[in-house]
Amino acid sequence: MKKQVPVSTIMTKNVIKLNLTDDLTKAELLFKKHHIRHIPVVNSNKIIGMLSYTDLLRISFVDAVDEEDEVVDVTVYNMFTVEQVMAKKLVTVSPETTIKEVAEILSSKEFHALPVVEGDLLVGIVTTTDIIKYLLEQY
Question: Distance between CA atoms of 106 and 112, rounded to whole angstroms?
């Protein structure tokens, strides 16, 4: 197995993002439309937070609704802002960080996605699923 492969080889580069001014209804629709579980929150492409689908489940009864259902409980979402629900203390990695290092971070933390940044600018996202797919390709 290759040991020094940079995360840039497996990260998602065309990242679905939210702005701080977006609402949680938009977030819910993006999660369902793109079948994703994590959305970075940016201000002028500078990473300022991460919103997970689990974050939304914590504030609503969305988990009681069919995953394919496009109906959203707008009333609950209007009670909170993206900023109130998103994670603000982020761990980030650079495109040069190795896949092994990313796997070590993800395996030791309680989250499943890392923003990939160059300076303060978001350039990608890597998830536990990306790591698993990479490892499966090695066999």
Answer: 6
Q: What's the CATH fold of domain 7-137? A: CBS-domain (3.10.580)
CB-based contact 125:116 (threshold 8 Å): yes
Q: What is the residue extent of each domain of the chain?
A: 7-137
Question: What does DSSP assign to residue 36?
Answer: -
Q: Tens digits of per-residue pLDDT, 62-87?
A: 445 555 444 445 667 778 899 999 99
- CA–CA dist 83, 49 (Å, integer): 8
Tokens of 116: 């990939």
List pLDDT tens digits, range 16-75.
999 999 999 999 999 999 999 999 999 988 999 999 999 988 887 644 555 544 444 566
Strands 38-43 and 18-19: parallel
